[in-house]
From TrEMBL:
Cellular localization per UniProt: Cell membrane
Catalytic activity: alpha-ribazole + adenosylcob(III)inamide-GDP = adenosylcob(III)alamin + GMP + H(+); alpha-ribazole 5'-phosphate + adenosylcob(III)inamide-GDP = adenosylcob(III)alamin 5'-phosphate + GMP + H(+)
Pathway assigned in UniProt: Cofactor biosynthesis; adenosylcobalamin biosynthesis; adenosylcobalamin from cob(II)yrinate a,c-diamide: step 7/7
InterPro entries xrefs: CobS
Family as reported in the entry's similarity comment: Belongs to the CobS family.
Any Pfam family: CobS
UniProt gene name: cobS
UniProt source species: Faunimonas pinastri
Protein name in UniProt: Adenosylcobinamide-GDP ribazoletransferase
Cofactor: Mg(2+)
Length: 265
């Protein structure tokens, strides 16, 4: 409890650290303490919300100009990927290429380190991107609710990725995930708290659709974590990014399942 309280007091610095690492924003971390991803990671969901503010405002602007929801959603998610530097999308494509193209654990990890994208990676990006765009477009039929969903999903999907990270040992002997270590209990508690807070508006606005989305997210991340255990016996930076993308796509899919029917869609 004391450690969790201590982390909450240093939350502004941890948010800056996460924004500096997980985005293209020119943000410097505090000079009086070294950057420690392992102990700062609890702030990742909150950093995700901050990173989603500009895309959410863009979505509101585009929809207020009566832009078609699908195009508005695509431009919004493109802005989101641009701010994040495509970091999580890169992890998803690397995982798909490695898991789909490698026959042995060592070969899978070798492929995942290759910066070139293959057919499995391209397909993974295409279909998850398609789900996210279609889901956000459906939610954007109402002027402001797509923007609210975007902010909440940003937090919840990152909290889910931290659970994935925590559930598995590192798959490699080197690399960023090994250097960062497994998130400790305080980080998981703080990240989970942000995820719960973000889920409340979704449940209040979307009701049954939110319950379905959260259930799909939990099942999808749990299934992907089990797959990673079977394929490479652990996690890596790529699997962490992939779990965030999977969580986001499934949550958008669930939120949009019943929502268009309310408007005759």
């Amino acid at each position: 409890m004391r450690e969790t309280t201590s982390r909450l007091f240093r939350l502004p610095g941890d948010v800056r650290a996460c924004l500096s690492f997980f985005s293209r924003l020119p943000i410097r971390t505090e000079h009086d303490r070294p950057f420690d991803l392992g102990t700062s990671i609890g702030a990742w969901p909150l950093a995700g919300v901050i990173l989603a503010i500009v895309p959410a405002l863009l979505l509101l602007l585009l929809r207020s100009a009566h832009m078609v929801p699908t195009i508005a959603a695509a431009l919004t998610l493109a802005a989101t990927a641009g701010l994040g530097g495509g970091l999580h999308e890169d992890g998803l494509s690397d995982c798909a290429d490695g898991f789909g193209g490698g026959r042995t654990r060592g070969r899978k990890l070798e492929i995942m380190r290759d910066s070139r994208i293959g057919s499995y990676g391209a397909l993974a990006l295409f279909f998850t991107g398609l789900i996210r765009v279609a889901g956000l477009a459906s939610l954007s039929l109402v002027f402001w609710e797509g923007a609210v969903a975007l902010l909440c999903v940003a937090a919840i999907s990152r909290a889910a990725a931290i659970w994935h990270w925590r559930a598995l040992p590192p798959a490699r002997d080197d690399g960023l995930a090994v250097a960062a270590g497994v998130p400790d209990r305080a980080s998981v508690v703080i990240a989970t708290g942000f995820g719960i807070v973000a889920a409340i508006p979704l449940l209040a606005i979307f009701g049954l659709s939110a319950i379905l989305g959260l259930a799909l997210l939990a099942a999808g991340v749990a299934g992907f974590t089990s797959l990673c255990r079977h394929q490479i016996a652990g996690h890596s930076g790529d699997t962490i990014g992939a779990s965030q993308q999977i969580a986001e796509a499934l949550l958008f899919a669930g939120l949009a399942t019943f929502w268009p029917a309310l408007f005759g869609g």
